[in-house]
Design goal:
46% of the residues lie in helices and 19% in strands. By secondary structure, it is α/β, with parallel strands linked by helices. The protein folds into two domains: 93 residues, ATPase, nucleotide binding domain (Nucleotidyltransferase, domain 5), CATH 3.30.420.40; 179 residues, 2-Layer Sandwich (Nucleotidyltransferase, domain 5).
């Protein structure tokens, strides 16, 4: 979960007042049951309420709550969004995978205005990974693949130190999923570059630079080269989840999720023949805001 509080001037310019995130594992157990668990819903609703209080304390007069893959895939999604609305007094908008991808692109293009040519943007999430093929800064194709870090971590036990044979099995599953799911995506087209957004790649960018505290300005536009990602995988894979959680910029809730995230990232790089990934700190949150301020729905 990610929170962004902004002040919008009459000119349309905006200033970020506060941002934070929390890992609540809303999709925990979803792959096995098809439903959001009671414990996961309770954790998440408490975090939403905390986010709303933080926003209201900063004088907000409008709050948007947007849900993505875990909620849209759950059989009990309506019961969950109803509970959220009762708890905080604000409605929840559930976006489709294609809408999520389009909104992420809006945020990335604003944050990286120099992006040009043909590129693929990917967003690794808890329950899915979104892909956009962009040409001349416009969406040429968008696809949401049900490949997320939470079910992979649950199946392969990535809290470490890693069993590298199990990691190899996970890697094969990921590559098979990409080959099948993206068979028609960007067919006959080789992108000029690859861009990543959201928690996995932004965390890797912070770790790669050995930041002692997360700095969006230094993460934005950072280039992750494959050998450096592989070195981070070996380093993190040798550690327990508790040891990983002590590293700066790797919050405890991501300690086991970062490993399947890296595996997806490396497999996506191979899929598109990319030696490096450009990182965008801005993404879905900013895209939601841009769309809302333009007068459109999330």
């Amino acid at each position: 979960m990610r929170l962004l509080v902004v002040e919008v001037c009459v000119t349309g310019q905006r200033r970020a007042l506060y941002e934070t995130q929390a890992i609540t594992r809303l999709g925990e157990g979803l792959a096995a049951t098809g439903r959001l668990s009671e414990a996961a819903m309770t954790r998440t609703i408490a975090a939403v309420a905390d986010f709303c209080r933080s926003a209201e304390a900063r004088g907000t007069h409008e709050i948007l709550i947007v849900a993505t893959s875990a909620v849209r895939d759950a059989l009990n999604r309506q019961a969950f969004v109803d509970r959220v609305q009762r708890a905080v007094g604000h409605a929840v908008e559930i976006v489709t995978g294609e809408e999520e991808a389009r909104l992420a692109l809006l945020g990335v293009l604003e944050g990286l205005p120099g992006l040009a040519g043909t590129f693929v943007l990917f967003d690794i999430g808890g329950g899915s990974t979104e892909f956009i093929l962009a040409r001349a800064r416009r969406v040429a194709a968008a696809f949401s693949l049900p490949l997320g870090v939470v079910p992979l971590a649950e199946r392969y036990g990535t809290d470490g130190p890693l069993d590298w044979s199990r990691y190899a099995h996970m890697e094969r599953e990921i590559r098979s999923g990409l080959a099948g799911g993206l068979a028609a995506f960007a067919a006959g087209s080789r992108p000029d570059s690859l861009v990543g957004t959201a928690g996995t790649v932004t965390t890797l960018a912070a770790l790669d630079q050995e930041l002692q505290a997360y700095d969006p300005a230094r993460v934005q536009g950072h280039v992750l080269e494959r050998p450096r990602i592989e070195r981070l995988l070996k380093r993190l894979g040798a550690l327990s989840a508790a040891a990983r959680a002590t590293l700066p910029c790797l919050e405890p809730g991501r300690a086991d999720l970062i490993i399947p995230g890296i595996a997806i990232c490396l497999a996506v790089m191979d899929r598109f023949g990319a030696a490096a990934v450009s990182v965008s700190d801005s993404g879905l949150r900013e895209g939601i805001l841009i769309q809302h301020l333009s007068g459109g729905p999330p």
